[in-house]
Amino acid sequence: MQKKTANPLLHLEDYPYESVPFSEVKPSHFDEAFEVLIKHTQDEIDRIARGGKADFTHTVEALSYAGIPLARVQSILSNLNSAATNEELQAVADRWMPELAAFWNGIYQRADLFEHIRKVYEKKGGLSLNTEQQTLLARTYRQFLHNGALLDEEKRKELISVKRRLSKLALQFQKNLLHDTNAFRLILKDADEIKGLPSDILERARERAREAGKEGWMFSLHYPSYGPFMKYANRRDLRERMYRAFMSRAYHGDAYDNSEIVKEEARLRKRLAELLGYSSYAHWVLTERMAEKPENVMAFLNELYGYARPAAEREFAQLREMAKDDGIDELQAWDTAYYAEQLKRRELSLDDERMKPYFELEAVLKGMFEVARRLYGLQFEPTDEVEVYADGVRVWKVMNEEGSYLALLYGDFYVRPGKRQGAWMTSYKSQFRSQRGRNTRPHVSSRPHISIVTNFARPTGQMPALLTFDEVNTLFHEFGHALHGMLADTTYADLSGTNVYWDFVELPSQIMENWTYEPEVLLMFARHYRTGEVIPSKYIEALRKSRRFMEGLATLRQLGFGYLDMAWHYRLEEVPGDLEIFERRVFEPVRFTSHVRGTLMSTQFGHLFAGGYAAGYYSYKWSERLEADAFSIFQKNGIFDRETARKFRRLLAQGGSRHPVELYKEFAGRPPEIEALIRRAGFTKNR
Predict the structure, then answer these.
(1) Which of 88, 187, 239, 615 shows the smallest number of beta carbons within 10 Å?
(2) Are the C-beta atoms of residues 453 and 85 closer than 8 Å to each other?
(3) Phi/psi at 89 (nearest 5 deg)?
(4) How many CB atoms lie within 10 A of CB 254?
């Protein structure tokens, strides 16, 4: 039986698997918990800094374990603010996130603590540390340097101020974007307006309208509504209206406009880098990335551009010819998804909406778990012992092959108000092994609580939750991140799971998408939700061919985002006055349609300005090179070969405890190569 406490956030050990009792947590509990845990963590840090011993155990290791309860409560607030927010939670986040950022940064600016760390670092050669301990020491030392440990007092204060302000701006950026996403509604009432839209899309649109007290069909800027509309709606004027609304989010010159926020973030990031001795924010960030420096990022993006551009030109010419048949002389941005879908139907006989009945969410989940069982021996048991934070969220207890407890997995799959767009994996509890601290016992591991969050359309009274194949890939993608977290097996939370170099973190997620194209896997779960019919072989073959469909344009799109990221964080000499002119120049090499006045990417680019991808968006394609190469090894040995899977599980388990190049070499027996990615995309040679 659960033990009731005055503030559950301060007594999470009282609940099953130390899980969060969401029904008992009130926004006010965060205020008390942060006050108590900040003081507790400060006391821990003071003891370390003032202790007589400057050795690995009493300094570096002790610092790694300090503040774990505080970090956990912070993650709970952050996760809820992303997945199930409201005005009260937003107010708590506004109060505390900047304070917490300043607190954590302040730890790494303490001269007395740095002096202890420096002493350990300088004698590291004679300490007989294992690889994980060496990694923790090097990382800890760099964190102090990156947080201004060598700066004078005036510059340290400025650095703290910059980081505090950046934290506030990121929160406001996210709030503004969510507001504009929720604010727009397109309500259609005439049959002519909905031509081309599949019946299940219309059913959900009608239900949204009913929920809003409206007649007809309602479409929104949430992607499960926006994406299908842009692909299927025959009415070009309505596609244009939706596109302009989507691409002008947080760019209306009102209280929710993000223009000045992105400019200020860029200025502050540049200043942060300068304070720490770097010429750009990208130079600073990339010191802890596989790419190492922005010049290497640009060389990688440009190399891939050389392969992708010729393919993209051929693909766009095909779309343009199709549009001409409809009397369209100039293809616009709101036309490309529509004509790409028409071309896909014609060339591949592939219709996403026709295939959706074969991808019922419950069946896809079972298939996904079966893939994990065959690869890693994992078992997923639904449990009602653990509370959830919103209707429709589910929890599985994850077990190893021999039946030992491994992790909790939360699944939050459906779109709802108060939930930001997109899909992500996150953690409510970190993995680590420890003999220290109030809630840990000798030889007992802290096992992780992992969450997958998506924005799939909800089931209706007439229809279960059906996924597009892209959404199936999204689910497998986030499950790959989840496996990285669930299989973690490191001593220190700082190095556990997804705490790896940013351009390595997408390898575990992107590699999982490969299994969705394999006939053996599709036959596990792709059955018609009404008839039970197995997905036809012609669909499987079409799906496999679709990996190369419009891949040139898709690659250029991703490269464009990478170029925009580098423009903001590497090539920026001064902050642009006119953001549209700035973006138009950046996107010129990858753009085939005209720029649409009044639209902007930066003001809605949460990855860069409210997430962790600043100077790191290239990592998606970088990791794609890794995963294509890694999956080619699975293909050679067998997609369920247990020895190959054992080696890959070892890579996942080690998290950030070793350099990713070493981890990859241990798995593959060699460094990563780009040939598998180029071959899979169907590209030929540089221009």
Answers:
(1) 88
(2) no
(3) -65, -40
(4) 10
| Kind plus residue range of the DSSP H or E element containing 167 | helix 153-183
Per-residue pLDDT band for 4 (boundaries 50, 70, 90) equals low
Model pLDDT, residue 444 = 52
Distance CA 363, CA 534 (A): 12
Per-residue pLDDT band for 168 (boundaries 50, 70, 90) equals very high
Q: Which residues touch 505 (CB under 8 Å, ≥6 apart)?
A: 481, 484, 498, 619, 623
Contact 519, 535 (CB under 8 A): no
Say if residues 341 and 231 touch (Cβ distance below 8 Å).
yes
Q: What is the mean pLDDT of residues 115-132?
A: 94
Portions of the chain given CATH number 1.10.1370.40: 356-516
Is the pLDDT assigned to residue 411 strictly greater than 90? yes
Per-residue confidence (pLDDT) for residue 52, from 0 to 100:
76
506 is catalytic: no
Q: Which of 44, 207, 315, 478 is labelled catalytic?
A: 478
* DSSP reduced 3-state for 583: helix
Q: Two tokens at 568?
A: 């903001």
Segment 299-317 shows an average pLDDT of 96
Structure confidence by residue, pLDDT tens digits, 622-632 = 999 999 999 99
Is the pLDDT reported for residue 325 higher than 50?
yes
Residue 332 tokens, joined: 């616009």
- Count each helix (H run) and each strand (E run) in the chain, helices first: 27, 9
Per-residue pLDDT of 344-375, as tens digits, reads 999 998 888 889 999 999 999 999 999 999 99
Query: CA dist 264 to 164, 574, 575, Å?
Result: 13, 11, 8
At 441, the pLDDT band (50, 70, 90 cuts) reads very low
pLDDT exceeds 50 at position 487: yes
Name, in order, each residue with C-beta under 8 angstroms of 266's C-beta and a sequence gap of 6 or more: 568, 569, 572, 575
Q: E strand or H helix at 597, and its extent?
A: none
Tokens 């309500």 belong to: 187
CA 210, chain centre distance (Å): 32
The answer to whether 655 and 490 have CB atoms below 8 angstroms apart is yes
Helix axes 619-637, 660-668, angle to 10 degrees: 20
List Cα–Cα distances, 162 to 94, 103, 275, in angstroms.
16, 13, 10
Beta partners for residue 451, in sequence order: 410, 426
Q: DSSP assignment, residue 589?
A: G
Task: Find all residues with CB under 8 Å of 679, minimum gap 6, and list them.
Answer: none
Residue type for position 597: R
Q: Which amino acid is at 452?
A: I
Distance CA 146, CA 278 (A): 10
pLDDT above 60 (res 439): no
Q: Does the domain made of 356-516 have the CATH classification 3.20.20.150?
A: no
- pLDDT exceeds 90 at position 422: no
- For 557-569, what is each residue's pLDDT tens digit? 999 999 999 999 9
**3-state DSSP helix/strand/coil % of the chain, to nearest 5:** 60, 5, 35
> Beta strand 432-434 with 444-446: parallel, antiparallel or unpaired?
antiparallel
